[in-house]
Amino acid sequence: MMKKLAPYVGEHRLYAILTPLMIIGEVALELMIPLMMAGIVDFGIQGDGGIAYTVRMGVLMILMSIVALIFGALGGKFAAMAGMGFAKNLREGLFDKVQEFSFGNVDKFTTASLVTRLTTDVTNTQNAFMMILRMAIRAPIMLIGATIMAIAINPQLSLIFLIAIPVLSITLYLIGSKAHPRFLELLERYDKLNAKVQDFIVNIRVVKAFVREKHEEDKFVESAESVRKAQVNAEKLIILNMPIMQFTIFSSIIAILWFGGNMVIDGTFYIGQLSSFIMYIMQVLISLMLISMIFIMVIISRASVTRIVEVLDEKPLLDDEDGNQELELQDGSIVFEDVDFSYNEDPDNLVLKNINLKIYSGETIGIIGGTGSAKTTLVQLIPRLYDVLHGKVAVGGHHVQEYKLETLRDQVAMVLQNNVLFTGTIKENLKWGNQHATDQEVEEAAQAAQAHQFIQSFPNGYETVLGQGGVNVSGGQKQRLCIARALLKKPKIVILDDSTSAVDTATDTAIRTAFKEKLQDVTTLIIAQRITSVSDADRIIVLDDGKINGFDTHENLLKSNQIYQEIHQSQGKGVNINE
Amino acid sequence: MSKPKPIMRGQMPMAKPNNLGNTVKRVGSYMKEYKWLLVIVFIAIISSALANVIGISFLQVIIDDYLEPLIGNYNETLMRGFVTVIGVMALIYFTGALSTYIFQRVMLHVSTKTLYKIRIDLFTKMEALPIKYYDTNTHGDLMSHYTNDIDTLREVLSNGVANFISAMITVVGVFAMMIYFSWELTIIVLLMLFLMLFAVATIGGKSAGYFVQQQQHLGKVNGYIEEMIEGQKVIKVFSRQEQVVEDFKVYNEELRENATKANTFANILMPVMGNLSYILYAIVAMTGGVFAIYERLTLGTVVAFLQFTRTFSQPIAQLSQQLNAVLTALAGAERIFKVIDHDPEEDEGHITLVPVQVDDHGEITEVTESTGVFAWKELKQDDTPTYTLVRGNVVFNEVVFGYEPDETVLKGISLYAKPGQKIAFVGSTGAGKTTITNLINRFYDVPAGNISYDGIEINKIKKSDLRRSLSMVLQDTHLFTGTVMENIRYGRLDATDEEVYAAAQLANADSFIQLLPEGYETVLTSDGGNLSQGQRQLLAIARAAIADAPVLILDEATSSIDTRTEALIQKGMDRLMKGKTSFIIAHRLSTVRNADAIMVLEQGEIIERGNHDQLIEEKGKYYQLSAGMFELS
User: Fold this and answer.
1) How far apart are CA B291 and CA A45, in angstroms?
2) B180-202: average pLDDT
3) ipTM
4) DSSP code per residue over B310-373
5) Residue B627: how many other CB atoms lie within 10 Å
6) Rounded CA gap, A429 and A449, in Å?
7) What angle do CA A33, A35, A40 make, to 5 degrees?
8) Cβ neighbours for B78, distance < 8 A, ≥ 6 positions apart
9) Are residues A77 and B74, on separate chains, in Cβ contact within 8 Å?
């Protein structure tokens, strides 16, 4: 799993290598200090070294500490550079990957989850990476180094290390492995609690309208108590770490003082060495503690890493590698042949069943049908937002899979049902359709979409800045901007997926008239709820439960198609002013 | 009404608390009942910290009084003394380790209980806040009290405070011992201490400054990620992937630069402190060595002093770190208390809603079981109840209202709904349709004019009872995480399964529910993501239907349902509305056609009223609307 992420260190590899090197340097110098202190005590004070030796060693120690400080600081700096560089590359890699995703991939992960993976999960991984760079090398080297120094000074006494190290590591390991599932449980319950709160906040009006405060409170109390219990359960193990650690250090010090003290009394060991021994055992045991902390970090970040790798490993559900670079759409014709479609590729769960359609270039086609009749699904197959399960969709004379996606989608302009405008000016948003469009072209498109007038009514006109999601324009205005944006592509096929639902009928008619006049050669598909929006189309598709129920002109359908009659009746009866 | 904003991720509160003392007191008040446990914690912390300090000072005794004298001349009494001293030291150390465990374990109990209490308090108080509070705070902000604020508080309560106190006691203890052993060496330590504090202040300050910048850039990058992932389908349709990635790279690189700076300073703090302490160690070793040679200090004193020097630097770095954490947590606690202290929804009503039975003589008697008939119960001064049957007679008299003091949304609305009538509101966004219904259920209170319900002024009715008498389908259809069954049953918690099925059938939701993978037991995600908007509306209608209250409010309840399905549920809806007063807000005129009275609203005023035929006849705004002459947005 870690291997998967390694390449993202990329150009920051040098710093990722330098960090541990710096830290090794720092640790090496740190390891010398107790030894030199022992020298001062045993040779300087007690031995023949005297002041000259003591001062010489003292100055040397100071110099070494300064060098160690520089090493340490550089290590920190390099770790930051490597860590943040890694995070940057990882974020970019993920972002790139998500851009490759097809609609199906996004549906699978859901938008919210993708956002979390690119934000919180990346931060967690970045912190763990930096921690590992700095600590994962430092702790083991310190552990081994201090042990070697101790053995070098007094092999017999270092037997204490041989007891203390395994005792502490096994205890820490046991605590860690027992606590791990409990922490997962805690996190899970904690997530649940937060989900409950979020649910409550989103639903506050429902809660108040139905007077369910007590009900919500009961649910919350139960959840909060379960979090509390889980926290106690998990942390009561972890808090054992510190006292056990202290117990081991203290026992070791006592043992060193006793056995070492006896050796001193026997004259086989010196007082300075004895106190350096105490320093070494502390370094060793603290390193062990650090290692156990690193393990916890790694475990915590493992969930994040897994979620990131899932995104990186995801295969885009459709690609255009077999697409022909040269191939262009000849016209705006659309053919569906025996098309079956399912969102989860399950033949038993078909959304579209055996669709056969032949639409000629330049035709205006209305699509109508109830909620869940798969109108949107049908048109999404045309710009190949999804691939069919069986059958074939041909656009402009060729199978959709024969085109490069960009070629196909440039020629098929689709105005989505849940449309999005982005932060930026109106003009910038419109130019999504064609980056090189002139101001005049932008205006023309806006005019066709009946958006020009209201845009001009804004004080800043086309330079009006839209908030995220286009929050400062009304629903109907947003829809017209989205239509204009699509028209700027100068496509061969335009698909309007319920794109005028918030637009009044008069404007709706004006849009359709403009389409008729200016986009004569463009095939237009209009999904609508209102029968008036499709009644003047060349032909109308009536969809019902993923099947084509009728495909004919308004007049013929009124005569022969029962569903069409019903829809007409549900909207028409009584309000006959229009006809 | 704006859509719920996505929760902002990666936000970190940086603010410091405004009223430190008060906030500490408030947090303390939650721990009051654990007073004695906290005393134990405090004693245990002292014992744990001092054991460490005293243990080190034993080094001097052992070296000077036993080891040195014993070298080369064995002495039985001294040897026995040595054993005793080692034994006492072991005992002290053992007590220290045990104390550590005790304070951590007790603190765990106290801190989790305290957090639990704060959480519950926050939630109950939040529940009682007026709708307005939810209008003016983003969901992300509200949510962050439960995540960010509580999390930092948790961190500090379970570790921070104890570590902070322990570090403080250690520093003081070590310092006292140092002075006791050698004031000359202590001066060196003090000088170095200033240098160390200076390093902490400079590096820490720089790091904090850059962290603020890093958070801003992180917010920018995360915001961009959020916007682009949400718009990913549009990006695909327009093949704009490359451009978007290019823009992202720029933001991302800016973040990297700032994050590198911030983390560099954060990363170098510990090595700088650690090695400064080694420099101090070296200086003390050298000076102490010289002092020992001149016999101004004993060997044991120098060794013990050196050990103290090592013990000194860690708690100092810890103190500065913990202080930051404690301040951040207190700032979080302050935000939590601000919510808790916020004025709750006012409810001065005293009239309650009770189920009653009416006998043949029109005599009303209160019953405990629901009969489908309700009455308003008012207690007279002498505690005798009077009952008024709930009929659904709603009257608005010159109602003026605005969400903000300086803007009026409703400008003197007067209307009446007779029991069993179907009243419809039509008009553009912002005309005040939803506002009217929000006043009936008292989501907001009326500053001028009044609203009465069955002849009673609504603010005399207890809010919960008022709302219980209204079944609502709200404009933004939200469902809860849970099964379909649970979601429908939300309307009436004691509804049987059969009643749930019946309500679903009435709303024409049964057929699609049957097709869901687990039928009525299918778990819906919080935003109902696995259902279409229309299906969610059908569930919301079923939820309101099961509540079976005398008055129904349907706010754009069928806006996303196609007209044919709407026609299908019409029968059910008619059955539901039979005998009930209902208020219907709709965009689509076909929905409101058969209403008893249609009110056409424009800019907070009723400009036309009458039934469909009358309004068509009038050839006014309604007529124009039907003819599609202008836009409803």
Assistant:
1) 9
2) 89
3) 0.81
4) HHHHHHHHHHHHHHHHHHHHHHHHHHHHHHHHSPPPP----BEEEEEEE-TT--EEE-SS--S-
5) 15
6) 14
7) 95
8) B66, B69, B70
9) no
Helix, coil or strand: residue A6: helix
Q: How many Cβ contacts (< 8 angstroms) between chains A and B?
A: 444
A489/B238 touch (CB, cutoff 8 Å), yes or no: yes
Are residues A355 and A375 in contact, defined by beta-carbon separation less than 8 angstroms?
A: no
Cβ distance of B252 and A272 shorter than 8 Å: no
For B274, the closest of A46, A72, A232 (CB atoms) is: A72
Check CB contact under 8 Å for A65 and B282.
Answer: yes
Distances (CA, A) of B49 to A282, B88, B96, B312: 17, 17, 7, 12
As a whole number of angstroms, the distance between CA B19 and CA B13 comes to 16
Residue B107 has pLDDT above 60, yes or no: yes
Mutant choice from B202, B210, B237 vs A, greatest count of A C-beta within 10 A: B237
Cβ-nearest to B226 among A37, A115, A212:
A115
Domain spans of chain B, in order of start: 15-181+315-345, 183-296, 352-389, 394-626
Nearest Cα to Cα of residue B557 among A473, A576, A527, A209: A209
Distance CA B267, CA B281 (A): 22
A 530-559 → B contacts, CB under 8 A:
532
Task: Identify any residues that bridge with A390 across adjacent strands, giving them in sequence order.
Answer: A340
Q: What are the angstrom distances between the C-alpha of B96 and each of A253, B47, B48?
A: 14, 6, 4
First to last CA, chain A: 66
Cα–Cα–Cα angle for A515, A520, A526, nearest 5°? 50
Cα angle: B568, vertex A526, A515; to 5 degrees: 140
Cα angle B121, B124, B126; round to 5: 100
CA A343 to CA A382: how far, in whole Å? 15
Comparing C-alpha atoms, which of B280, B289, B286, B59 is closest to residue B187?
Answer: B280
Q: Which has the minimum average pLDDT: A59-68, A217-226, B575-584?
A: B575-584
Domain B394-626 part of CATH 3.40.50.300? yes
The pLDDT-based confidence of A572 (bands split at 50, 70, 90) is low
Partners of A244 on chain B (C-beta within 8 Å) are 97
* Number of neighbouring beta carbons within 10 Å of residue B411: 15
Show the 3-state SS of A489-545. CCCCEEEEECCCCCCCHHHHHHHHHHHHHHCCCCEEEEECCCHHHHCCCCEEEEEEC
Total residues found in chain B within this entry: 633
Give the domain B15-181+315-345 fold: ABC transporter transmembrane region fold (1.20.1560)
Q: Which residue in the block uniquely carries the two structure tokens 């022992």?
A: A38
| pLDDT per position as a tens digit, A525-565 | 998 877 888 888 899 999 888 889 899 998 999 889 888 88
Q: B316, exposed or middle or buried, with CB in 10 Å at 0-12, 13-18, 19+?
A: buried
In this prediction the pTM is 0.78
Contact A246, B96 (CB under 8 A): yes
Tokens representing residue A295 in the block: 């393990």
3-state secondary structure (DSSP) of residue B366: strand
CB B510: neighbour CB atoms within 10 A? 19
CA–CA dist A381, B286 (Å, integer): 81
- What are the two backbone dihedrals, phi and then psi, of residue B500, each rounded to the nearest 5 degrees? -65, -45
Task: Identify the pLDDT of residue A50.
Answer: 82
**Model pLDDT for residues A501-512, shown as the tens digit of each residue:** 777 777 888 888
> Which alpha helices (H) appear in A438-492, and where do they start and end?
439-448, 452-457, 475-487
* A residues 298-337 closer than 8 Å to B (CB): none
Does residue B35 contact residue B156 with C-beta atoms inside 8 Å?
Answer: no
- Beta-carbon separation of A420 and B234 below 8 A: yes
Q: Which chain A residue has the Cα nearest residue B255? A: A88
